Amino acid sequence: MKWVLCLMALFAFTASAADISGNWKGSAETANGTVERTFAFKVDGSKLTGETTSNMFGKSAIEDGKVDGDDVSFTITVNMQGTEGKVNYKGRVEGETIKFKVEVQAVGQSFEMVAKRVP
Fold first, then answer.
1. Beta-strand runs (E) in the chain
2. CA-based nearest residue to 104, from 76, 81, 82
């Protein structure tokens, strides 16, 4: 019986979503220069919502967001020179840091971004 309880506790621990609610700030070096982006995340179970603001592309709502353990994913829509485009974020939470792989669908470009929790 103890063995079963231990397995259930382990499963509950690994299945819980990382608590990334709050404000984060990220930056990345791209071909177009340094991109800085702030994130205001709201987590409800495994659902991730909120908004994000960039020095290059302004404010965007977080779409299709989810948190699965330490994995985070969401999409935003940005306006690039008058054309809207989707940007996909996939990341992994490591303490007070999230390491994202960012894919800009419209231009077929991807880059790495590191975000840190803002106290």
1. 22-30, 33-44, 47-54, 58-61, 63-68, 71-80, 83-94, 97-104, 109-117
2. 76
Task: Write the single-letter amino acid at 105.
Answer: Q
Q: How far apart are the first and last CA of the chain?
A: 43
Q: How does pLDDT run across 8-60, given as a tens digit for each residue?
A: 444 444 456 688 999 999 999 887 788 899 999 999 999 999 999 998 888 99
SS3 1: coil
**b/e string for 58-94 if b means 16 or more Cβ within 10 A?**
eebebeebebeebebbbbbebeeeeeeeebbbebebe
Q: How many residues does the chain have?
A: 119
Which structural domains are found in the chain, ordered by start? 17-117 (2.40.128.20)
Entry pTM:
0.83
